[in-house]
Amino acid sequence: MGMETPVVTPGDGGRGPTAPSGTLGGSTVQRLATAEVFAELETSPRGLASADVARRRDPQARRRGLWRDLAGQFTDLFAVVLLVASAITFLAYGLQQPRDVGTLQLAVAILGVVVLNAAIGFAQEYSAERTAESLQAMVPHTCRVLRDGERQEMPARDLVPGDVVVLEAGDAVPADCRLTEAHEVRVNNAALTGESDAVGRTAESVGAGPVLEARNCVFMGTVVAAGSAKALVFATGAATEFGHIFRLAAAAPRQKTPLQLRVASMARRVAGAALAIGAALFAVRVPTGQPFVETFVFALGVMVALVPEGLPATLSVSLAIGVRRMARRHALVKQLLAVEALGSTTVVCTDKTGTLTQAEMTVVQVWAGGEPHAVSGVGYGPVGEVADPRPVRGLLRAAGLCCNARLVPPSDREGRRVLGDTTEGALLVVAAKAGLNLAAEEAAAPRMAEFPFDSTRKLMSTVHADTVSGGYHAYVKGAPQELLARCAAIDWSGERRPLTAELRAAVITANDELASQGLRVLAAASRPLADSRPAQDEVESELTLLGLVGMLDPPRPEVSDAVNACRRAGIRIVMVTGDHPLTAEAVARRVGIVRQPVPTIATGTRLDELDENGLDGLLAESGELLLCRVSPEHKMRVVTALQRRGEVVAVTGDGANDAPALKHADIGVAMGASGTDVAREAAVMVLLDDSFASITTAVRLGRSVYQNIRKFLIYLFSHNIAELVPILAATFAGFPLVPITAVQILAIDLGSDVLPALALGAEPPEPDVMDRPPRARRERLFSTAVMGRILFLGGIQALGVTAVFFWHIHGSGIPYSDFTKDEPVYREAITMVQAGIVVSQFFNALAVRTDRQSVFRIGLLSNPWLLAGGGFGIALMAAISYLPPLQAVFNTAPLAAADWAVLAVFGALLLAAEETRKWWLRRHRPGNRKEGER
Fold it and tell me: Model pTM greater than 0.70?
């Protein structure tokens, strides 16, 4: 829905302050007569004139702050550290006498790293959000409006206060409106209030009270279930009740994901360590007589060596790969970091309708004349049959005639659907399965009057003329208890019998049996009438009960496997629904959420009675939990309590009133097909197929993303040790120059290492990823096992490149004090160090693909992108070594074939050492399988 245009106070031309939703000239909108409402909004039943529309529209359309999003990429701690480093390096270049062009190159290179990381991160986030916005194209937001007295169809976002809209059954209400004409209108307010039953609406003025309770108003985001109307728009966009909830959801702080917390913690530690080590080396070298500025640039190079410059870009792209994989599996993730957070999920609070079930009410049993009749087939398609349909045709005819819904044939964009109430749609389908032609029946018995359903009577009645035999008949359907109390007789195998206490008990028993199966039960009755305009009391008394109809929203066939996968993965599933406990338990048992004989069932009334400690105690119980008859406020409270216990909570929702809970949850999951715009806006993930199974798939992919993040973290940080140790060794050995320059380090981090790291981030999920428990919210990204691998692999690389450097230096016989930056031996030595790290990283990338299993078992060629990325890094290194323009930038020298052979042997030794470690683990610790390990 559009959110651009506020309500306009009449007479201000759209320029003055806006009136609050539901107020016009100081009078509540529901209290005014129809003519007064038109006068207050300066319009007429013919609608607005075209000239008036422009002045009423808000000229300031809200636009997303792209520049703000881009600027946000520079607030990452790594980015801040590198920006400061770049600024200081520029300053050092300005202070140098004579100025060293290498210092300028370093400053520009560091700044380029920050800009590149920001560009990649922004591009991936922008791409994910644009993909999310493509959802809006799935649902056409149009409405019918009167302007200049002519009926037009236009986008709902173009409505302004004073417009007159035309509403019919099945229409989504496009704005907050006061009804001016109403013909047997019923509106489903579930998306706004959570009330599942459609409520009647009138065009007459009503007394004062909350506008949401006004029976002559309809609100944006709700659906017309029956009837037709004309309505006068008094609030649009953000000024509507729907928009009010949107603003509340937007104001709620977005919860940080587990990965955000872990990366932030890691960034603080790494940045602190880099600054401390750089400062320490600066303090050690200054007393030795080294030039102050050069010593400072040297210390800065050490700091740059410790900061994983390629990590932000690699992390963004890896998460983006996860986003695309999830999108292919019907889960659209709007925020990249939410991908990994899914893998941390410990509790899923799921609603029932449409997520666990198909959102297609289906009659499965009909009871008439004391006998049950099974019904086959699922959904709104006329596939299936009624067992022995002859005795139930009278019942189904009456129920079908007492319906306002219509079945819409399938189209290219969607399958067969119901226009109107889904319960009535199920009655129309079962009538067709019994062989009834309701169109012919309606022609033979035209409707003369209707008494709409309301939540007090819990009945709906229609009056029909009998064109065959003459006279009139009333058909009534509704809640069995209410209807049974108004019946004096019962149709028993085609014979009308008095409704004795014995027969009444049989009906009650049949109703209880159907309800115990989790079915929604409706009863139908009829009676003859003398005229076409009887009083409601006459229509709904002295009825003859025709029978009972039991229906359910059938579970999705794929949900049971998804629930079992969550159980294996240690994820708790809590059903949170507004339905009756019996219905909720029946569905929960069908899909496997409930297996125990007696699950814990808590209603909204019980939740209201519990204080925070009591709620914590309820949620702490280890058994299966169903929360029934709950409101969105209850859902929000449950989410908060679970998070208080340290759980990572995913919450599903589709209504506007679910938005606060979706926003507050660690992972808010909205429905793409049936969800409201506000719910989709508040959520971080949208299920395009509305299926719970897509959540399980997303969790599986989220877990694999976290595993892959750990793989490339080990890959990236291990070579940082290889960059740092030679510098430290040269410092303590008294060598005046650095074994590897900051520009070379940047070339490794952003040139040679990025593609292999990205390939590691694209590794497919491991087969047993859903057989492991969820990670704890406070688990460190750098666990003991991860740090051990970083030190092991990085130590081997550091030992090798340090040995290679000093082998070259000592082999020349030149005293340390005589070395300069232009000395060929020095240039050759630093080239060997850089090439040694690049080659060893090629083998390191192969080594970190698994933690315990041999890489040869999964296949060296099973990730061709990894091999290609490693090959590119070596080719880039060769170009830096042999091409004169790059030699001038990096101060390198050409390497001999023997040098490359030495480095290849060194890399193979690294892989051999890691394979030996894995073999030892498999042999001595066969059962020690930690999270993130194979």
Answer: no
